[in-house]
Write a structure and sequence with these properties.
Layout: E1 2-5, E2 8-11, H1 19-25, E3 49-52, E4 57-60, E5 71-73, H2 77-92, H3 101-105, H4 112-120, H5 124-135, H6 138-144, H7 148-152, H8 164-173, E6 189-193, H9 197-208, E7 212-216, H10 234-251, E8 254-256, H11 264-268, E9 272-275, H12 295-313, H13 336-349, H14 367-374, E10 394-395, E11 400-402, H15 412-415, E12 422-424, E13 431-433, H16 445-449, E14 455-457
Parallel strand pairs: 1-5, 6-7, 6-9, 7-8
Antiparallel strand pairs: 1-2, 3-4, 3-5, 10-11, 11-14, 12-13
Helix pairs in contact: 4-5, 6-8, 6-10, 9-12
C-alpha cells in the first residue's frame, strides 16, 4: 500500500511495521518514550502523536498500523502542542533532579556528584582531572570560595552537608606535577591577554585542545594582581598560586611578562587572541561578555571564550554550532517524610564523601530530558504530584537500581520482563513496582530499555 508522510509517498505492507517504524525507515524522526525498537510496548506517552490529514485524527504512531491512503503529518503547531502537553504531564509526576543542586549553584559549573563518585571509588587521579578540567585553578578557588554548594547540599537537612570544599582541597593536595601531561600541538598559536582567572582558564582549555598558548601579563605576578587578597593570608595563597602556575607551565603554557600594547604586530599574526583584562584594539580579538568579578564565574567565562575561539578556528563550510539550554528537572526541598526516610537509610548507603548523589545517573541519556530540551520546556505548568519519595532507591542486583520517583509508567520494563516489574492499581494512581520476590528475574538489559533514570546501572 501507499501512504504519505509529510507529503512524501512511502510504500509499506501495512502489517509488519507501525507508523513510527515506517517514518524512521524513511529517515523521518518521530519522538517517543514508551516505544523501543524490537521491544514489546503499548502507547502511553503520546509523544509520538501524528495527524492523519485525511481523517483529521491525532494518532499514536508507535501502535497505529498504516492503512491505504493515509496522509500523515508529523510536524505542525497542533502536534507540537500535544507533545509539549504530554511532556509537561509526565514531568509533573517526576520527582527527581537532572543535575544536583550543588552543581547548579556552583559558579564554576563543577559536576560535584561526579567528582564525589570517583572519590568514593578511590579513583583520585580521575576525580582531580575532572576538578581541574572544570575549575582550572581549583586550589585558588577552594581557598577563596564561599562554598555555596555546601549551603544548598540536601544532606544538610538530614544531618550535615557534604564537606565539598575540603574534598576538593584533599584532591588538589594529591597533585603530582610529574603526571601533568603536555598535549600535542595542532599547529596553531593563540594568545591570552591577562592572567586573571578568566585568562588562565582560557589558556588551560586552549592548551588542552592543542594550541600553542602564550599568556601576556604586564605585572610581575601571575593571577595575584587579579584576585582580592585583603581577606586571606597572602603568604598561604602565594603557595597555592604557584601550584596553579606550575601545572599550566608543565602543560606547555608560556607566560610572557610584557605589555601587550608593545607587541600588537606580533599578536596580529597569531591565529587568535583572547583579551581577558584589556580593551581589544582589534575586532578579531575575543573579549568577555560577562561583567562578573566572581573568580569561579570568570573561570567558566574563560572556558566559554576558549571554546568560542576553537569553534571559530574549526568552522567547516561556514557552519557554526548552536548552543541550546538543556532542560533541568528539580524537585526542590526534601519533604519531612523524605528526610526521615533518608535518615534511616543513610547508615546502609554511607560512602566516604557522604554524598547522596542527588543527580540522575542517566542525565546524559534520559529521553525525557532530551525531549523536554527539544521542545523548549523550562518547567512543568502542572504541580508535582508524585506519590514516590525522592532519592528512594531499590537495589535490583549488585550494580542495578530502580528509582520509582523517576518512573514515567511507560510499561517497557513490565512488558519486557518475565515475572519481574508489574503494575499496581489503575488509572492516575497506577504505579510500576518491583516486588522483592521478583528481583532475581530482572535482566540488566532493562536498564538500557528504560527511557529515564528509573532503572539504571552504576557507572563502571
Amino acid at each position: 500500500m501507499r501512504i504519505s508522510i509529510n507529503n512524501n509517498p512511502i510504500e509499506t505492507d501495512g502489517v509488519s511495521e507501525t507508523l513510527i517504524e515506517v517514518a524512521h525507515r524513511a529517515g523521518i524522526d518521530i519522538p517517543s518514550l514508551c516505544y523501543a525498537k524490537g521491544a514489546k510496548h503499548k502507547s502511553s506517552c503520546m509523544l509520538c502523536a501524528v495527524r492523519d490529514c485525511a481523517s483529521g485524527q491525532l494518532l499514536p504512531s508507535c501502535t497505529t498500523m498504516p492503512t491505504e491512503g493515509m496522509q500523515i503529518e508529523t510536524d505542525s503547531p497542533e502536534i507540537e502542542l500535544t507533545r509539549t502537553l504530554s511532556l509537561e504531564l509526565l514531568l509533573s509526576d517526576h520527582r527527581a533532579d537532572c543535575e544536583a543542586p550543588c552543581k547548579v549553584v556552583c559558579p564554576g559549573g563543577l559536576d560535584i556528584p561526579a567528582m564525589n563518585r570517583l572519590y568514593d571509588k578511590d579513583r583520585f587521579d580521575e576525580a582531580l582531572t575532572l576538578l581541574r578540567d572544570t575549575l582550572v585553578i581549583p586550589a585558588t578557588l577552594c581557598f577563596i570560595c564561599p562554598a555555596p554548594c555546601e549551603k544548598i547540599c540536601r544532606k544538610g537537612s538530614i544531618n550535615t552537608a557534604v564537606p565539598i570544599r575540603e574534598l576538593k582541597k584533599e584532591l588538589v593536595s594529591r597533585t603530582d606535577l610529574q603526571k601533568v601531561a603536555k598535549p600535542p600541538q595542532n599547529g596553531m598559536s593563540v594568545a591570552v591577554i591577562g592572567s586573571d582567572p578568566l585568562g588562565l582558564s582560557a589558556a588551560y582549555r586552549l592548551r588542552k585542545l592543542g594550541y600553542r598558548v602564550r599568556v601576556f601579563e604586564k605585572s610581575g605576578d601571575v593571577l595575584f594582581p587579579h584576585i582580592q587578597t585583603d581577606k586571606v593570608d597572602r603568604t598561604a595563597l602565594k603557595g597555592v598560586v604557584e601550584l596553579e602556575v606550575s601545572v599550566l607551565t608543565n602543560m606547555g603554557v608560556e607566560f610572557v611578562m610584557s605589555d601587550e600594547r608593545d607587541r600588537l604586530h606580533e599578536l596580529e599574526e597569531l591565529d587568535g587572541v583572547i583579551a581577558a583584562v584589556c580593551e581589544a584594539p582589534s575586532p578579531k580579538w575575543l573579549v568577555p561578555s560577562a561583567k562578573t568579578k566572581q573568580p569561579a564565574r570568570l573561570v567558566l567565562e574563560g572556558c566559554k571564550l576558549a571554546d568560542a575561539l576553537h569553534a571559530s578556528l574549526s568552522v567547516v563550510d561556514g557552519t557554526a554550532t548552536t548552543v541550546t539550554t538543556t532542560f533541568n528537572s528539580t524537585f526542590g526541598r526534601l519533604s519531612e517524610a523524605e528526610v526521615a526516610s533518608l535518615g534511616t537509610e543513610l547508615p546502609t548507603q554511607q560512602v566516604a564523601s557522604g554524598c547522596l548523589y542527588c543527580d540522575c545517573d542517566k542525565k546524559t541519556t534520559c529521553k525525557l530530558r532530551l525531549y523536554a530540551t527539544r521542545y523548549g520546556i523550562k518547567s512543568s505548568r502542572y504541580g508535582a504530584s508524585s506519590v514516590f519519595e525522592a532519592l528512594h532507591r531499590q537495589r535490583i542486583n549488585g550494580s542495578m537500581w530502580f528509582e520509582p520517583a523517576k518512573c514515567i509508567r511507560c510499561g517497557l520494563c513490565v512488558y519486557n520482563s518475565d515475572n519481574g516489574f508489574t503494575f499496581r492499581d489503575r488509572g492516575f494512581v497506577m504505579q510500576v513496582v518491583l516486588p522483592p520476590e521478583n528481583v532475581g528475574n530482572v535482566k540488566e538489559e532493562l536498564a538500557d530499555l528504560c527511557p529515564t533514570g528509573g532503572i539504571w546501572k552504576d557507572a563502571p
